[in-house]
Design brief:
Layout lengths: L2 H4 L1 H7 L6 E7 L11 E7 L3 H14 L3 E4 L5 E3 L4 E7 L6 E4 L3 E5 L4 H10 L2 E2 L11 H6 L3 E2 L2 E2 L4 E8 L4 E5 L15 E9 L1 E2 L2 H18 L19 H7 L6 E2 L2 E3 L7 E3 L5 H19 L8 E3 L3
Parallel strand pairs: 2-5, 3-5, 4-18
Antiparallel strand pairs: 1-2, 6-7, 7-13, 8-14, 9-10, 11-12, 11-13, 15-16, 16-17
The structure holds flavin-adenine dinucleotide (FAD).
Flavin-adenine dinucleotide binds next to strand 3, helix 5, strand 9 and strand 13.
């Protein structure tokens, strides 16, 4: 990053035509479920597509770094925070039913709220999303899912604004969904169209209740965490390997491996991002030494030292 790019006066000049809310040196930890990480240079809260496109055009013109924050539920932001412009899409959160089996949601909408909205409209297929505490944009970017169900299966198209501010609707076949990712070009997921299956509300509600109960029984849902730390390796579960390596409950600073589920790390209070990074490295080294398996992080580690 150049000096110019870190310079607030420079950013003020570049952003002076932006009509929406923005916050300087905004602490980012409260915007994440893990509750760690330093500040963002400037956080912007576009409330419509025009504002969002204006920002991306400025970014492209001045070659500025940027980051898109969703619900912050799959993020480990480093203690030095994030340089550049941090997008917060929480005002772009519309959800609507279209026709009898379609649903459209903006990128900043809460994924659990979309699941509830679908249920209220007698639409099944997103029950698994009720327990995934992020945004619609984050769910697509991560192809969020559970064993047996993935976001990719319900999506029919994704509306993306690319880095130069051009908007395009990308059909699901071209999204390139992978295990916890996509092959979408860099940009911002503005909206997602889902095709669901008409089903009685009571049936959907029952399924959601059972999914949420299972989560409460197996995962530390009431403690600050970032979901699964590692992707599951072929033919196995990351949590089993960490547990078999004897690391359940292992702690570094304020970061601890959950004693309920070994693929979760929790903030015991006052943890730094560096505690979590050290703990994650310890998990990787120990599992590699014991079982010869390289665990790949699912959590996105972003920002600067
Ligand atoms: C208690 C708990 C349980 C969880 N359970 C699951 C689970 O069962 N299955 C699962 O898959 N995950 C799970 N997760 C992880 C997480 O909720 C998902 O990965 C979620 O989809 C992330 O969405 P988010 O909006 O929070 O994204 P963030 O964490 O904010 O960001 C994740 C990535 O998505 C990108 N992104 C976010 N929004 C956009 C956008 N609009 N446009 C472009 N890029 C964007 C970010 O830049 C970043 O790279 C869990 C997390 C927690 C805390």
């Amino acid at each position: 990053m150049t000096e110019e790019i870190c310079d607030t006066a420079f950013y003020r000049e570049v952003l002076k035509g932006f009509q929406g809310d923005l916050r300087w040196d905004e602490p980012l930890a409260p915007y994440t479920t893990l509750k760690v990480g330093g500040p963002g240079n400037v956080m912007v809260f576009p409330s419509n597509v025009t504002e969002l496109v204006f920002l991306l055009e400025q970014i492209s013109k001045h070659h500025l770094p940027y980051f898109v924050l969703g619900g912050g539920s799959n993020l480990l932001i480093k203690d030095g925070g994030i340089g550049g412009i941090v997008f917060n899409l929480r005002q772009l959160n519309k959800i609507e039913a279209v026709g009898f089996d379609f649903l459209m949601a903006e990128g900043g909408a809460s994924y659990p709220k979309v699941a509830t909205f679908a249920m209220e409209n007698d639409l099944g297929g997103l029950e698994f999303a009720a327990g995934i505490p992020g945004s619609v944009g984050g769910a697509v970017a991560m192809n969020a899912g559970v064993p047996g169900a993935e976001t990719s299966e319900a999506v029919i198209s994704v509306t993306l604004v690319n880095e130069t501010g051009e908007i395009s609707e990308i059909p699901v076949q071209e999204v390139g969904f992978t295990y916890r990712g996509t092959k979408l070009p860099r940009g911002i997921i503005l909206a997602v169209a889902f095709r669901l299956t008409p089903r009685p509300k009571a049936e959907i509600e029952e399924k959601i209740k059972s999914i949420l109960k299972k989560r409460r029984d197996r995962q530390p849902v009431n403690l600050s965490n970032c979901g699964s730390v590692f992707k599951n390796p072929a033919n196995g579960f990351a949590g089993d390997l960490v547990e078999k390596a004897g690391l359940k409950g292992h702690r570094i600073g304020g970061a601890e491996i959950s004693s309920q589920h070994a693929n979760f790390v929790i903030n015991k209070g006052g943890a730094k991002a560096s505690d979590f990074i050290a703990l994650i490295e310890k998990m990787q080294h120990t599992v590699a030494e014991r079982f010869g398996v390289e665990l790949e992080p699912e959590v996105k580690i972003v920002g600067q030292k």
